[in-house]
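G., the chain you wanted modeled:
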Amino acid sequence: MKVGSLKIGVSSQNFRTVTGHAGKGRRFMVYETYDGSEIQELERLDLPKEMALHEWNGQGEHPLFELDYLITGGCGEGFVRKMGSRGVMVRATAETDPVTAVKALLSNTLPPAAPHEHDHEHHDGHDHH
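Predicted structure as tokens:
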């Protein structure tokens, strides 16, 4: 965990709870923290449909790529890879409260998401660190 300012996004379709399908989602709450102590809500992203990463054509800058971490209720492997290639660490979690999730991420206690039954992508189930 780097020291200084961290930008942490939370996928939240209702701006209240952590929701899944971050690749198709267009609403994100962005928090900033200094040295992992003070957490403040920086902004709320309400992206137009074409800016959902699932639809996005890759042109120009995307606001999600400015994040250090993105917390979501769940997402596909492709999304994790795409974000990772831009330097964003994606964490899927069962935690539903955005601020609690951000604090848990910072203290390394973020509970993992329950595995998705309906996810048809093949993965070996191992978490590669």
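The two ends are 14 Å apart (CA to CA).

Shout if anything looks off.
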